[in-house]
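User: I've been trying to design a sequence by hand for this structure and keep getting stuck. Would you show me what you'd pick, starting by listing the structure so we're on the same page?

Assistant: Good idea, let's start from the same input. This is the structure you sent:
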């Protein structure tokens, strides 16, 4: 039995600015989160991850940090964080913070010192300042582009340029400078000493850039800007710091790299504990594509000896209820911009989208590993596409001149009470509007309304989180044969998860010898899996196994090959076997 709490945990991401506002200024805060811990405890989560709440000018709402060791006044005080950690811990809920070490704010004292210093100074060496190209240095040092759009270089008054992978207000650190390395050692210890249980690491594959900073090639991926080998020394250093504490502190990375082999390097025994498995997030509602994404993640887990960290949503992508309700694009995500697959525009059938999102959540909860939920998923909230232009604040929107909607639509403040002003996000006495406007239809998704219904999305999430460990066990899955191209099914321990990706109901195969225990929709006597839904079952007799056997055959005629197995409608990349390494 694993002693590491994160191996089978459910972790809830809190975008603090939009979660709950206690003081009535229209901005979510730490006291508001503390006041809603009952909701998270009842939901059944094991930990919460806070998006950045440090001192910041809020150009990128906290991902531009001016002081890494202080709480931004808009979110509260150090005492508010202390109270949150204490209350959460008393409920058995751990608290993770967000570490943004690739870049800071242009209002950070170090960057202000750099701007005030001469080229070649020690202050400038903490960042990536370079002379420009051209006769008078009027051209950027190279052709690198910002993730948020436009050039990744900004010129200062003395003619030099500084690099920013994101917005111009977010200068990148020079991680080859010893000051930077030691500074972040201190930041980690500062928060660990205050009871924080770990960190999610923003753009963890960043930090270092190729020191030569050559022009990017024309294939859409800048190999010199990401995933440099020196980054692993930093994570070994951080892991060592985390192990100084009892219990040891936890690190999970936001990492986008093109291969399993590259990802595995971040997850060695002396580096990060986990990295997000984003492949499931960017898949369409289609059985074979989902199965292949699961297989890839489990291959990676087998290689590194630790479980995946699954997620279907976060603060950077459109919400699942909208994505799954849109027309499903079956083209593979671009390897150079996978996240684009999760930010498509277009009309959505929201009833269908919510139905599929519930099923997808039950799918990921049944898998071995950690599940990250983004706030509002448990309410089935859709993306808000129709925000007024003047209300949008995301740098992606601003830097693209409105060509890209950006991420504001998944960050609209949550609806807690259908009948209250601001839907209960702020106190009734508040005279300040929420920082992003809430559409009137948010009332239909309010938490207090869903509390009254056993059929609500919230009720499904609560039952699934409560039942996941009772239904499923072990680090391995066995794909099950069904004979239905729309049905994805696997067994884990004595539990079976079956997801019907089709628009017609499917009978539960009798040879599974299993009883239904939970469905994302009404399952009646449990003999039928409704359309676009998931069902959990438990095996009642083990006298007839339905997995692909060692002889390469199964009751439904699936065949094993040396390159993989044939899954619901086509080849999958891998099949987990019962003798795979156990997680430690």
């Amino acid at each position: 039995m694993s002693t590491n709490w994160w191996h089978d945990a459910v972790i809830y991401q809190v975008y603090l600015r939009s979660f709950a506002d206690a003081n009535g200024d229209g901005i979510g805060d730490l006291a508001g989160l503390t006041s809603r811990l009952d909701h998270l405890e009842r939901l059944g989560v094991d930990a919460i991850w806070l998006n950045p709440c440090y001192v910041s000018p809020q150009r990128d709402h906290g991902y531009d940090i001016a002081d890494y060791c202080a709480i931004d006044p808009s979110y509260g005080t150090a005492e508010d964080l202390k109270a949150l950690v204490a209350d959460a811990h008393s409920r058995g809920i751990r608290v993770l913070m967000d570490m943004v070490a690739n870049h800071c704010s242009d209002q950070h004292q170090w960057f202000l010192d750099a701007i005030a210093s001469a080229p070649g100074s020690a202050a400038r060496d903490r960042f990536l300042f370079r002379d420009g190209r051209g006769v008078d240095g009027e051209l950027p040092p190279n052709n690198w582009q910002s993730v948020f759009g436009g050039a990744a270089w900004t010129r200062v008054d003395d003619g030099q340029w500084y690099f920013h992978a994101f917005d111009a207000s977010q200068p990148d650190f020079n991680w080859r400078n010893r000051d930077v390395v030691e500074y972040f050692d201190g930041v980690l210890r500062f928060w660990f000493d205050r009871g924080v249980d770990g960190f999610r690491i923003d753009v963890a594959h960043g930090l270092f850039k190729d020191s030569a900073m050559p022009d990017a090639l024309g294939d859409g991926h800048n190999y010199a800007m990401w995933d440099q080998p020196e980054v692993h020394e930093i994570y070994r250093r951080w892991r060592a710091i985390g192990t100084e504490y009892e219990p040891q502190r936890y690190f999970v990375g936001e990492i986008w790299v093109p291969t399993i082999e590259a990802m595995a390097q971040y997850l060695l025994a002396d580096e990060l504990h986990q990295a997000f498995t984003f492949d499931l997030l960017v898949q369409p509602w289609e059985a074979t594509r989902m199965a292949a994404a699961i297989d890839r993640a489990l291959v990676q887990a087998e290689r590194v000896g630790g479980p995946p960290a699954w997620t279907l949503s976060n603060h950077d992508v459109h919400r699942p209820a909208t994505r799954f309700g849109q027309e499903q694009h079956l083209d593979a995500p671009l390897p150079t911009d996978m996240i684009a697959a999760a930010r498509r525009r277009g009309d959505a059938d929201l009833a269908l989208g919510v139905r599929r999102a519930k099923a997808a959540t039950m799918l990921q909860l049944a898998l071995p590993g950690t599940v990250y939920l983004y706030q509002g998923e448990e309410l089935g909230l859709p993306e808000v596409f129709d925000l007024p232009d003047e209300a949008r604040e995301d740098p992606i929107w601003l830097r693209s001149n409105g060509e890209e909607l950006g991420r504001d639509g998944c960050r609209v403040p949550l609806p807690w009470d259908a009948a209250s002003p601001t839907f209960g996000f702020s106190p009734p006495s508040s005279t300040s509007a929420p920082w992003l406007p809430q559409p009137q239809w948010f009332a239909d998704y309010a938490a207090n309304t869903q509390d009254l219904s056993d059929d609500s999305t919230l009720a499904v999430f609560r039952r699934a989180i409560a039942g996941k460990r009772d239904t499923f066990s072990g680090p391995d899955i066995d794909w099950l044969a069904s004979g239905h191209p729309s049905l994805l099914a696997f067994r884990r321990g004595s539990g079976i998860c079956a997801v019907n990706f089709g628009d017609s109901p499917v009978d539960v195969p009798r040879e599974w010898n299993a009883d239904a225990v939970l469905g994302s929709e009404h399952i009646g006597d449990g003999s039928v899996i409704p359309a676009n839904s998931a069902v959990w079952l438990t095996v009642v007799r083990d006298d007839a196994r339905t997995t692909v056997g060692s002889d390469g055959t199964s009751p439904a005629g699936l065949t094993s090959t040396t390159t993989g197995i044939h899954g619901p409608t086509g080849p999958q990349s891998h099949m987990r076997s019962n003798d795979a390494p156990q997680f430690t």
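That's my pick for every position. To get oriented when you compare it with your attempt: Residues 391-438 form one domain. The longest strand covers residues 533-539.
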